[in-house]
Specification:
about 220 residues; single chain; 3-stranded antiparallel β-sheet
């Protein structure tokens, strides 16, 4: 019975992946974040099914998405801070699966782009909380992805930043969550960061953070 069940699941997964492969959400200049989720599904299905064709399709589309749906500095072009976290999550899940599957080629192709997305996520999340700009997805509350930047940094070997105290997406990968203590350590710091290609600018002064979004397209 168990073998029969796994056979049915495998057949269903393959059927869904093949359908998706023939219905990719390319919409010319209007192509948006849906395409990245298409690619994530194809790659993960390819890993589960040991299907190199599906994996390669996922890789190529993810490369396209990293180049065309994100800015050079790593921000989602759609201007939504919440969707930036959701799409960065998609890339991190694929990288994690690629590492488990021993897919060095995937890491070689995507590592630098994903590192830029993670830096952008850290910028947008600031000290404690995501600043909401643009569309907010109904799928997950913003705080559920509060550990995106920390998981990304750990996965990419860029240190072990502290994680949110509450359980969230990061809890699927990391169990040793510790409360973030950044608020108290930043009181006397003043600095500014700007990413004109993405339209995001941030000024920090003491306990205050001012974030400004100016759409680069006017």
């Amino acid at each position: 019975l168990e073998g029969e069940l796994f056979g049915q699941l495998e057949a269903s997964l393959r059927e869904h992946a093949e359908f998706l492969l023939s219905h990719l959400e390319f919409r010319g200049a209007s192509t948006n974040n849906h395409l990245v989720n298409d690619a994530r599904a194809l790659y993960l299905a390819g890993v589960c099914l040991s299907d190199v064709r599906l994996q390669e399709a996922g890789r190529k589309i993810l490369e396209f998405g990293a180049r065309n749906i994100f800015t050079f500095s790593g921000f989602l072009r759609e201007g939504s801070t919440h969707y930036h976290l959701l799409l960065t999550r998609a890339f991190l899940e694929v990288l994690w699966a690629g590492r488990v599957a021993g897919d060095d080629e995937l890491w070689e192709r995507l590592r630098d782009s994903v590192a830029a997305m993670v830096r952008a996520a850290s910028f947008l999340q600031g000290r404690d909380e995501l600043a909401l700009v643009g569309d907010v997805s109904p799928d997950f509350p913003p705080e559920f992805h509060g550990g995106i930047a920390a998981v990304g940094a750990r996965l990419l070997g860029q240190g072990s930043p502290s994680l949110p105290r509450e359980r969230g997406w990061h809890s699927f990968f990391i169990e040793d969550a510790e409360a973030s203590s950044t608020a108290g350590s930043m009181q006397n710091v003043s600095r500014k960061e700007s990413y004109p290609d993405a339209g995001f600018h941030r000024f920090v002064c003491g306990d205050w953070t001012f974030l400004l979004y100016l759409n680069p397209l006017g």
